[in-house]
Amino acid sequence: MLAPLLLIATLALLVWAQRNDRRNYRRFGKVKDSARRQRLFLRMAGKNCALYLLPSLVGLALLGRVDALWTFPTEFAPLVEQLPDLGTGNPAFLGMATGALIVGALIGALLRMLLLRRPLRGAPIADIAPLIPRNHAELRHILPLIASAGISEEVAFRLYLPLLITGSGGSAALAFTASTLIFGLLHRYQGWVGVVQTSLLGAIFALLYLGWPGLTAPILVHLLVNTATLVLRPAIELSFRPRTD
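Above: the chain's sequence. Below: its structure in token form.
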């Protein structure tokens, strides 16, 4: 009976967070002062831990399942057996994924610099412009946000939420499908394109979790994705501009 109650409480918390995130993100996008942006990056990092990591750890403790952080839950085993062999358990897979992220970030940064020489047309891929560091100080201050997001979101959406759904009578397939869609919807503040993008990323993280299996691979790749997007690409662009910090 505890798992369904925790599931209801978790979903209510996520609905509240999604509504507040949209409003707060719009406000954050209007902030121009770099020092304030740096403080807000750190505040967002703390919020991620308070919203995703802490409730997950408390819930796992109440369920007596803290060991699921390092021991793959048996509830997910039937789904693992149904998945095709994608080679995700091979260390070479992470190596190739890492290389693809780095190369993609380099190409993306170069294309962006070329496009900025003339007016941009069309909507951005996703509304992440407010999160992009604008100077080297912001690059440093966004690192805790990247770390907190990569760790806390993977614990919450690849382990805790699926565990609550299976503990409430749902199948493993339903659990990971629902948690992936919820993960995407929580990025509604980035626009619907952002929802689609993060849902696809969530599906990849779920496959890594199930294919490895465990939290190490999805956390690592999540951190790499965020680092490539919010650190590597901006750093490349900033290297072509004079320092302002």
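The radius of gyration is 19 Å.
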